[in-house]
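QA checklist item 7 of 12: single-chain prediction sanity check.
[x] sequence parsed
[x] length recorded as 220
[x] structure emitted
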Amino acid sequence: MTVKRVIFVRPGETEWNQTDRWQGWVAIPLNSYGRLQAVALANFLRNIGIGQLYSSDLKRAAETAEIIGEKIGCAPTYDSRLRERHIGQWQGLTRQEAQLWYPEEYAQLQVNRDHYQVPGGESFQEVKIRMQAAFEEILTKAEKAENIAIVSHTIAIRGLLSQLIQGYDPASVRLGNTSVTTIKRDGAGWQLTAANDIMHLEGITPRYAREAGEEDDPRH
């Protein structure tokens, strides 16, 4: 059986989302609102027929995946390659703090967004490469599922989509917490059918927690 549809999910909200801090690989758990979001998402996904569930092993993603998995009856498979961009020395900082404490490095990021390696971290291009490798391996292993879900992160999802979807601009659409972004097979390639779908949050007090630094360039 060939995978025909892939549903990408951003984890639920954390306290660092609310304080606009780069999380990177830090083990930040969901806050109470994030868990509420994840439950609403799980109730939505249970009717879609997801056959396999994959997730980043970072705490906020793993907690989201566990809530989804319990509802749809499918235990998540964790893969460290699905993690968010590692931002090294900038983890825990706000954009303003990064600009103040690392002015030269931050300026270099603005000039070379794809290939600049954050001190102690990785470049956006490196994220794309590991995400695509993970995705291709997942497709070969998910032989018994037409629909699969992948819980990953804003930059990681955008990086992969830019590799899979011709003309996709990583900065074109914001991804809210627990947002659903879906692609389907289109011949030998993939077609984007939904981006940043948060219909499942209807009835929950809305609030948008952006990825830290998003006002500069949502890709990072």
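[x] summary fact logged: The helical segments are 15-18, 32-45, 59-72, 95-101, 103-111, 124-141, 154-164.
[ ] second reviewer sign-off
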